[in-house]
């Protein structure tokens, strides 16, 4: 799939919020974030998730049918439960994407929670929808319509996040049902030039990779691009890349977004060289392993440490591809 639209220097979408966000306002903070990403020479631009509470809010804030609870999960995410099948109250994030597109010529990127992830974590038996699969399919219809709208407005890279797909347990959905639901969301009748629909199946690789399960994962969701964990140097990370079909792009999460220590660039390059033995690196890109602030008030790193990580991603990209982005 090699072409000129691989968005080599990528990031998951969420960035550490500025300390003065409440003072300067979200609009100005997003404008400043665009300038920041441009100076970093990123090949994509996001709004940093600044307008949202967490990475799920792009959907949960724009649909009815969900109730917020007082509970939190292990990642600090507030638990929501589905009380009825969701209905969209209008576009979800398309207005923010349009603002991004008006601020820079760099391709705007939008990240959304996958419908299977939302269904698996919000379905409660006996409350509302008859099954997690029914809930997921309803969410998939809403998210697929939003993806079509985003593409029509010029967005060329859209990422679905489902942190459960690499886990042994996939919440209230079976693995097969999760694949079927997310597959519904990524379908597009037409792919304008340069459009990539990406899936991030998890922030970390499992201890071991079952080749049959990996094959089922990639075959089950017809995404153009897979954003894969690649920051620990484990055989499982390499196995996930190796199992990816030749007609898919890959983005390697080469730096750990949870620790301030910088990776050794020679070690990272050696890992990428290993990928180059069985994959065409022209189909590749690099990014951090996950978002830096998927929960707005719980950033994983300081802004300074985030900056050093993003600079390192840019440096690695130039080591691999020179200036041909």
Short recap of the structure:
The chain is of the alpha/beta class. It has helices at 21-24, 26-39, 57-60, 94-103, 115-122, 132-152, 175-186, 211-220, 235-242, 265-276, 303-321, and strands spanning 63-72, 78-88, 109-113, 157-161, 196-200, 225-229, 249-255, 284-288.
pLDDT averaged over residues? 93
Strands across the major sheet, in which order?
Answer: 3-4-5-6-7-8
**C-alpha Rg (nearest Å):** 18 Å
The largest sheet is: 6 strands, parallel
Helix content: 25-40%
Oligomer state equals single chain
Care to describe what's here?
With 325 residues, this protein is of the alpha/beta class. It is 38% helix and 16% strand. It has helices at 21-24, 26-39, 57-60, 94-103, 115-122, 132-152, 175-186, 211-220, 235-242, 265-276, 303-321, and strands at 63-72, 78-88, 109-113, 157-161, 196-200, 225-229, 249-255, 284-288. Helix 7 links the parallel strand 4 and strand 5. It starts with 20 loop residues before the first helix and ends with a helix.
Essential attributes:
325 residues; alpha/beta; two-stranded antiparallel sheet
Question: Helices and strands in order, then pairings?
Answer:
Blueprint: H1 21-24, H2 26-39, H3 57-60, E1 63-72, E2 78-88, H4 94-103, E3 109-113, H5 115-122, H6 132-152, E4 157-161, H7 175-186, E5 196-200, H8 211-220, E6 225-229, H9 235-242, E7 249-255, H10 265-276, E8 284-288, H11 303-321
Parallel strand pairs: 3-4, 4-5, 5-6, 6-7, 7-8
Antiparallel strand pairs: 1-2
């Amino acid at each position: 799939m090699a072409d000129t639209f691989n968005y080599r220097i990528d990031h998951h979408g969420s960035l550490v919020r500025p300390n003065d966000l409440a003072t300067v306002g979200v609009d100005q903070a997003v404008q400043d974030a665009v300038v920041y990403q441009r100076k970093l020479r990123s090949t994509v631009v996001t709004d940093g998730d600044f307008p949202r509470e967490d990475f799920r809010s792009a959907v949960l804030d724009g649909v009815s049918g969900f109730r917020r609870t007082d509970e939190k999960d292990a990642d600090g995410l507030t638990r929501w439960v589905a009380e009825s099948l969701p209905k969209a109250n209008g576009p979800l994030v398309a207005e923010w994407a349009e603002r991004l597109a008006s601020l820079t010529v760099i391709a705007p990127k939008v990240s959304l929670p996958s419908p299977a992830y939302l269904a698996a974590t919000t379905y409660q038996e006996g409350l509302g929808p008859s099954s997690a699969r029914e809930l997921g399919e309803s969410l998939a219809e809403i998210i697929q319509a939003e993806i079509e709208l985003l593409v029509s407005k010029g967005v060329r890279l859209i990422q679905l996040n489902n942190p459960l797909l690499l886990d042994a347990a996939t919440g209230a959905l079976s693995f097969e049902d999760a694949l079927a639901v997310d597959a519904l969301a990524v379908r597009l009748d037409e792919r304008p030039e340069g459009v990539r629909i990406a899936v991030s199946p998890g922030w970390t690789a499992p201890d071991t990779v079952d080749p049959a399960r990996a094959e089922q994962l990639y075959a089950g969701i017809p995404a153009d691009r897979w954003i894969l964990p690649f920051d620990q140097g484990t055989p499982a990370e390499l196995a996930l890349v190796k199992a990816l079909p030749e007609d898919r792009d890959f983005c390697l999460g080469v730096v750990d977004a949870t620790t301030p220590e910088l990776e050794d660039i020679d070690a990272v390059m050696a890992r990428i060289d290993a990928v180059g033995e069985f994959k065409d690196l022209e189909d590749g890109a690099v990014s951090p392993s996950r978002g830096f602030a998927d929960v707005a008030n719980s950033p994983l790193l300081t802004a300074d440490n985030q900056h050093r990580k993003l600079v390192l991603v840019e440096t690695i990209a130039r080591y691999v591809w020179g200036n041909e982005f």
